[in-house]
Amino acid sequence: MSLSPTIIAEQVSLGYGTHSVLSDFTASIQAGEFIAILGPNGAGKTTLLKALLGLTMPQQGELSVLGHAPHHNCVGVGYVPQKMFHLSVASISADTLLTAALPSSAWGFPHVTTQQREQMDYCLEMVGASDFAHKRFVTLSGGQQRRIMLALALLGQPRVLLLDEPLANLDLRYQEAFVDVLHTLCQQQKITVLMTAHDVNPLMKAISRVLYLANGQARLGSVEAILNSAVLSDLYQTPIEVIRYQQRLFVLHAESGQIDHAHCHH
Amino acid sequence: MFVFKTVNVLRSMAALFQYDFMWHALLAGAIIALLAGVVGFFVVLRQQSFATHALSHIGFAGACAGILLSVNPLWGQLLLTLMAAGLMAIMPDKMERKDTVIGLVLAFALGLGSLFLFLANDFAGSASHILFGDLFSVSSASLWLMALLSMISLVVLAMMAKGLWLSSLLPEIAAARGLALKKINVVFFMVLSVAITLTSQAVGILLIFTLLVGPPAMALQWTGCFWRGLALSVALNIGFVCLALVIAAMSNWPLSFCLSALVFGSYSLLWGFGNRTC
């Protein structure tokens, strides 16, 4: 690939005050890559996304997204948050949510131009949400809600998509369908996708590389290069066994023989 | 017989509008309903009913202080509500025992208010005015003041409508976009303080929900679109206030009862019809 990388991290350290989350992280991610960010709770997955959004500054090192230091209000970066808001008080339709999220200044009245309306329809079409966009958001299924959130993130025609646990609490078939949509976006529009996940298996056919975070360390590489007993044992500093069964990966604590559900790939 | 009765009712209704106090009450009511309809729309979306409730009760002490010091109670109430709102708006979201702290401040403010009224030697009359409102005794001076305050509030809201709308619906996205959520909240709380103070002139600090929560919640139940929701919220508020004023003037019953009964009844009816989308 001759293009310059979309995301560059040079010896980046992240943390809050004296508490260090991730240290000495160096990576280079190309346009159109699909990266799964894996690791146990508290390993810094969300913190890394926040740093890429420009919401927290690296304590050390340099981070670059689309050629600039991360800064908020960057239309080139789309974001799907982990927390689902509670809108049960109102009959807010998915459509209305999208109009509220149209990229613009914070001043003045909400107003939708014809061009923006077309952009909204296009984004809804891309994620296959046109059929239910007129419905109340709270009445939609989990999978449908995630699609709406994805359409919302696509409104500014981003080059980079950051997704925080978009597969959490979804049934397997919805997980698969959602990953398919992301896969298509990656391939057809060369959008770079970084998503955090607890389970790598639904992502297998779509991802280009895996970013594994644990113990303040990070490893970036192909699924085979990272998700193996040697690398994970080194990361966790405890014997870890990776078992492949019918093209699915399972991470086990070698000593106890238990599948570690905090960071399993079941 | 029935026709005769109806004509009689209409005649006495028409007679009402010969009086200045009725026109004053209607005008003041409409101004308050307009502001409360707009502000309440965001109160419901942002789920800040408890803050609204607390702020109105804290304002009681301010209004009573005004009576003790022989100034317009509206000023005392507005000042104290604004100060409390400023503090409340900058409280961290995850502050420990936040509800307890607000609840205790609220209770203390009510206690303080009763002390001020006792010292002013004017307990019963003033207390009932502040607690239940009195739209029929609005002077033209107060009317102008209300119009001015509500105009300023609406202009401020109009300027930040888009940011307020996004941060109310999608706070996480708004934060990721770098919107100053805290600042937006502080400004909104200032506007909310004005709306609470004015609304309590009409229905008293005890019944502000009849205008700041009820009709806006009905509007949001019916439609989730920005303009339609806002317009419906304002229209409902103005309709309820005017209707309640006429009923109150004709029946001689308290306005607070007429209005709260109308709002409660309508909300119950709407509940029966279920929800709709826009």
Write the layout of secondary structure elements.
The complex is a heterodimer of chains A (266) and B (278).
Chain A: E1 7-16, E2 19-29, E3 34-38, H1 45-53, E4 60-65, E5 77-80, H2 94-100, H3 114-126, H4 142-154, E6 160-163, H5 172-189, E7 192-196, E8 209-214, E9 217-221, H6 223-226, H7 229-236, E10 240-245, E11 248-253
Parallel strand pairs in A: 3-7, 3-8, 5-6, 6-7
Antiparallel strand pairs in A: 1-2, 1-4, 8-9, 10-11
Helix pairs in contact in A: 3-4
Chain B: H1 2-16, H2 20-45, H3 49-68, H4 73-90, H5 98-119, H6 124-132, H7 140-159, H8 161-169, H9 171-176, H10 181-203, H11 209-212, H12 214-222, H13 226-251, H14 255-273
Helix pairs in contact in B: 2-7, 2-10, 2-12, 2-13, 3-4, 3-5, 3-6, 3-10, 4-10, 6-10, 7-10, 12-13, 12-14, 13-14
In short:
The complex is a heterodimer of chains A (266) and B (278). Chain A has 266 residues and is an alpha/beta fold.
Q: What is the 3D shape of chain A?
A: globular
What's the overall geometry of chain B?
Answer: globular
The CATH C-level name of chain B is Mainly Alpha
Q: Radius of gyration of chain A over alpha carbons?
A: 19 Å
CATH architecture of the largest domain in chain A: 3-Layer(aba) Sandwich
Helicity range of chain A: 25-40%
Runs of chain A with pLDDT <50, length 5+? 261-266
Give the helix tally of chain B.
Answer: 14
Strand content of chain B: under 5%
| Major sheet strand order of chain A | 5-6-7-3-8-9
How would you state the average pLDDT of chain B, rounded? 88
CATH topology of chain B: ABC transporter involved in vitamin B12 uptake, BtuC
- The secondary-structure class of chain B comes to mainly alpha
Span between termini of chain A: 33 Å
CATH superfamily of the largest domain in chain A: P-loop containing nucleotide triphosphate hydrolases
Name the structural class of chain A. Answer: alpha/beta
